[in-house]
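Lay summary. Proteins are chains of building blocks that fold into shapes, and those shapes determine what they do. In this project we predict the shape from the chain. Here is one chain we studied, written as its sequence of building blocks.
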Amino acid sequence: MFIQQLINGITQGSLFALLAISFGIVYGTLRLLNFATGSMYMIGAYFGWMFVHYVTPNLFLALLAGAASGYVVGYVLERFAFRALRGVARIASLICTIGFAMFFNELMTVVFGAERKAMPAFYGETAFVIQEVSVSWMQIILVAVAAVVLILLQLLIYRTKLGLAIRAVSLDFKTASLMGIPTDRVISLTFSIAGAVAGIAGVLAAAYYNALFPYMGNMAGLKSFSAAVFGGLTSIPGAILGGYLLGIIENFAVQIISSGYRDIIGFSILVIFLLLRPQGLLGRKVD
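And here is the predicted shape, written in a compact code that computers can read:
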């Protein structure tokens, strides 16, 4: 059971890590908690589902469709909503993200219905067996895709001019603007990238659980926020670490205690770290 729960934890932690880094990128740039992240995750899942059903049953192309939908939604939200609120009280932007999350949830309920929709099963065959524990190809693909996305994001942030601009804006966007950095464009790209990552996570989750529904992003978003706080909202490696640790801790706790405590565990971690170490494991204190 140890190996089984470890594999389950790494698989689930990959989804948490993708959403946690989506939270972390936006927070690191604007000190804004984007609670619409869970909705972009859900929208990505629906666009992936539509692509599979109406275009071609190819998981990897569906991932691109989910990424594209998240990218567009992230850009539109920043360009036409959050940019107008920049410079005002942070609580206004926070409430705006919650409002958009509720709007998208209700919109998808009206368009697609509230019932769960089935995602076709992909790569369900057993890849290999470790001490009588079967590991499917879908689990391997999910972890591999998440790892590739996370590595590419690390390279983007720390090895490119765009990444340097993002880090400069995260330190002080007014000073960055005076230095000639197009802050509006950089912030829009940051939101778009965060949305694309959330969209990819949504397609992966729908393919892994073989289901999607309009409110699937609510709990996933809150847990991933917990993971980001756990690892450190101001640290991209910390957000990734927090996602994997939360997935592993949840699965082992379910095995030891009860499956009914799964959600309680994630939010208990959030409360504990907010009280004892609000900057998280790898994060830094900010004003």
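What the prediction tells us: Residues 10-217 form one domain.
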